[in-house]
Design brief:
It contains 31 helices and 14 strands. 34% of the residues are buried. With 730 residues, it is α/β, with parallel strands linked by helices. The protein has five domains: 132 residues, P-loop containing nucleotide triphosphate hydrolases (Rossmann fold, 3-Layer(aba) Sandwich), CATH 3.40.50.300; 93 residues, Zinc Finger, Delta Prime, domain 3; 43 residues, no CATH class; 176 residues, Vaccinia Virus protein VP39 (Rossmann fold); 124 residues, no CATH class. α10 packs across α12, α15 packs antiparallel against α18 and α16 runs antiparallel to α17. The protein is elongated and about 125 Å long. The longest helix is centred in the middle third of the chain and has 29 residues. The protein is 47% helix and 13% strand.
């Protein structure tokens, strides 16, 4: 460099912007980024030891990325080369590579290549550089404002250590400004500048962590101000405000700032912080984000994070978005704000994620055969029985009836779990009660089918009645007189009907339940998870109904409750005796029992004119004998015989009630087939088989055809009798 070039270079440095002149020359002069440059930190040690590997500096503008590279250039013994990804082409890259090779060959020194705005490298530029970074010809130092994991060639990223620089704190920016005011060589130390404290704070705050912006504003303030009579430049708050009027919003619609800000916006609404949500939305709007993008994210949020806790949220946001389309900016900001505030203050629920659980089940290929009653009956209903047995909910009280909607293998599977927030809190109990009634109906149907359509042929239709199941639950719960801390045991709990209700009402004690199979235990464990108060169902498997299965010494219940418990035992009072050790002194039993002996007779389903009087009389007599046979444990008793048995066993009957019901019930063809199975190895306890002792095969076949032609597919008033009792020991 000759004398003229040296003078020209000195003049350029002197006339350079303040921000460029004040770049730190050593690590000691560097302000901020203590998380990577504090004494003992890896990067600081590597620079001081001149042991660098490839690096990528990533952070907002004005945080010191290029400055760090220059510090490395001043301290390293390696050859320092520099290019700009935008201004330099492949030829410049090759020239740098040739220089690096020459230095290594002739001087045994490494070469460091600094690439500013490395994210702007195109594929050809990256491909030209990559092999030489891989073989160590050059050590890469890249600088970028974009996330390198998304914007930089993955091969370059994998061979580089990433250091993220953060926006400077206001105190750090103030320190940099004060350095510029005191440095007489590079800054304004040779001038008398009085920067007011409030002006200093304003410059540091509005710069938003960007040292370059703060120094540029300071330079503008100094150069445009007039000295007073004492030759002092007075930089007041007013002058500072004019020099840096608006804080620059760091935002790039395709970069990290975009995704980070929208993420902060969503998370603020999810956290029900309207102030933070408004702030992040304001930042996006001020940066020029498309309001329609913000509305799209709020529409998603309304379904994903508010959901059923406030079903109106989707309508509010949708209406606000539509209003914005009509109004436009700037008045449309009112609608942005309204939607944002509504979502931020609305109750939250993510129960819509249940849909993705259902998708997972479908993708796993579990059986998904549509139950026959739900199939389309318009095309081939007669030929295949599609749609037969479907119960039209609007024909029932409260427009609801318990019937199977899920495939058999998924019955009892729960996808949707209402939260305790907002609107969902008001429907939570209804959803749970209906679900429990449906599960109870399914278990009853399954038990009937597994018994091969036995003598309890009425079980399928009778126990499938949602109205009757709800009546049982409400009646038994009322008679149980439970409080928040009642210690209760539910017998025959596999259907879930009573257990769910007890868990909702008892909040200070665990509820105990006995089931007959491990499958029932598994289903109930899924259905009744621990409540928000920490109460859970303690479920044990014991088909005999003995509480000893819980293996808890001195366990004494205040209530022992069950539905259709006693009818399974021939010696009903004897079974109750086995439970006496498990009831507390002031406790009592509550049972609800279906009474088959007084219930529906199938013969009454056939219209009077379709059977000969003598045949009908004989049929009724046969049915009576079948029900009252002593070997038929479940049906050979009546409320009066049971009452006498209990009194004789010295039981104290506190309350006793017999109730009759007439439930609209659809008679399905498949039920007729169960009652009158045609195959030879049919169960001996089916209705048809039991009648074979009283009628000829021809008579039975005629009776079967009458049921098929005249009863199947009709809705009948099914007569049912239930017994409710409250007992304790004398």
């Amino acid at each position: 460099m000759n004398l003229f070039e040296h003078a020209h270079d000195k003049q350029i440095r002197k006339e350079a912007p303040l921000a460029d002149r004040m770049r730190p020359r050593t690590i000691e002069e560097f302000v901020g980024q203590s998380h990577i440059l504090a004494p003992g930190r890896l990067l600081r040690r590597a620079i001081q030891a001149d042991q660098l590997s490839s690096l990528i500096f990533y952070g907002p503008p004005g945080t010191g990325k290029t400055t760090l590279a220059r510090i490395i250039a001043n301290t390293t013994k390696a050859e320092f080369l520099s290019i700009n990804a935008v201004l330099s082409g492949i030829a410049d890259i090759r020239k740098c590579i040739e220089t690096a090779k020459k230095v290594r060959t002739e001087h045994q020194r490494h070469a460091v290549l600094f690439v500013d705005e490395v994210h702007r490298f195109n594929k050809a530029q990256q491909d030209a550089l990559l092999p030489h970074v891989e073989n160590g010809t050059v050590i890469l130092i890249g600088a970028t404002t974009e996330n390198p994991y998304f914007e930089v060639n993955k091969a370059l990223v994998s061979r580089s250590r990433i250091f993220q620089l953060q926006s400077l704190k206001s105190t750090e920016v103030e320190e940099i400004i004060e350095q510029a005011l005191t440095d007489s060589e590079r800054g304004f130390g040779d001038k008398q500048v009085n920067l007011a404290a409030e002006a200093l704070r304003h410059l540091a705050h509005v710069a938003g962590g960007d040292a370059r912006a703060a120094l540029n504003a300071l330079e503008l303030a100094v150069l445009t101000s007039q000295a007073d009579e004492n030759d002092v430049l007075q930089i007041t708050l007013e002058i500072a405000e004019e020099s840096i009027q608006q804080r620059a919003v760091l935002y790039d619609k395709d970069g990290d700032a975009h995704f980070d800000t929208i993420s902060a916006f969503i998370k603020s609404m999810r956290g029900s912080d309207p102030d933070a949500a408004l702030f992040w939305m304001a930042k996006m709007v001020e940066a020029g984000e498309d309001p329609r993008f913000i509305f799209r994210r709020m529409l998603i949020f309304a379904g994903e994070d508010v959901g059923m806790a406030d079903p109106q949220a989707l309508g509010v946001v949708s209406s606000a978005a539509q209003a914005f389309d009509y109004v436009g900016m700037p008045e449309g900001r009112y609608h942005l704000a309204q939607a944002c505030l509504y979502l931020s203050t609305a109750p939250k629920s993510n129960s819509a994620f249940a849909f993705f659980d259902a998708i997972s089940v479908v993708r796993n290929g579990q059986a998904d055969e549509v139950p026959d009653p739900l199939k389309d009956a318009n095309r081939d209903g007669k030929a295949f029985g599609h749609g037969e047995g479907y119960l039209y909910p609007h024909a029932y009280r409260d427009h609801w009836v318990a019937q199977q909607y899920l495939p058999d293998v998924l019955q009892g599977r729960i996808f949707y779990q209402p939260s305790e927030q907002g609107y969902e809190a008001s429907i939570q109990e209804t959803v749970s009660r209906n679900r429990e009634a449906q599960l109870a109906a399914f278990f009853s149907q399954t038990a009937s089918e597994q018994s091969g359509g036995s003598i309890y042929w009425e079980a399928r239709t009778l126990n499938s009645s949602g109205e009757l199941l709800n009546e049982f639950r409400d009646h038994l719960t009322e008679w149980s007189e439970i409080s928040r801390n009642t210690l209760a045991l539910v017998l025959n709990a596999g259907e879930g009907l009573l257990l769910g209700e007890f868990l909702r009402r008892i909040s200070e004690e665990n509820v105990y339940a006995l089931v007959e199979s491990s499958n029932e235990k598994k289903i109930l464990g899924t259905l009744f998870k621990k409540t928000t108060s920490g109460i859970e169902a303690k479920i044990a498997v014991d088909s005999s109904g003995c509480p000893a299965s819980f293996e808890i010494a001195d366990l004494r219940f205040e209530r022992i409750v069950g539905r259709n418990v006693l009818q399974n035992h021939a010696d009903k009072s004897g079974f109750l005796e086995t439970l006496k050790p498990w009831i507390s002194a002031d406790g009592f039993f509550v049972f609800g029992e279906t009474v088959p002996a007084l219930g529906q007779r199938l013969s009454d389903l056939i219209p009077e004119e379709l059977l000969e009087p003598d045949f009908r009389k004989k049929l009724k007599a046969a049915e009576k004998e079948i029900y009252l046979e002593e070997k038929n444990v479940r049906s050979s008793w009546t409320p009066s015989t049971l009452r006498d048995e209990l009194k004789g066993a010295n039981w104290n009957i506190i309350r006793w009630q017999v109730k009759e019901y007439c439930i609209p019930t659809m008679i399905r063809t498949e039920q007729i087939e169960q009652w009158f199975p045609s195959h030879q190895d049919s169960p001996h306890s089916s209705y048809g088989q039991r009648l074979s002792a009283y009628f000829s095969p021809e008579q039975l076949n005629n009776l079967r055809e009458t049921f098929r032609n005249e009863v199947a597919g009709t809705v009948v008033e099914w007569h049912s009798v239930s017994l409710f009792m409250q007992l304790n020991q004398k």
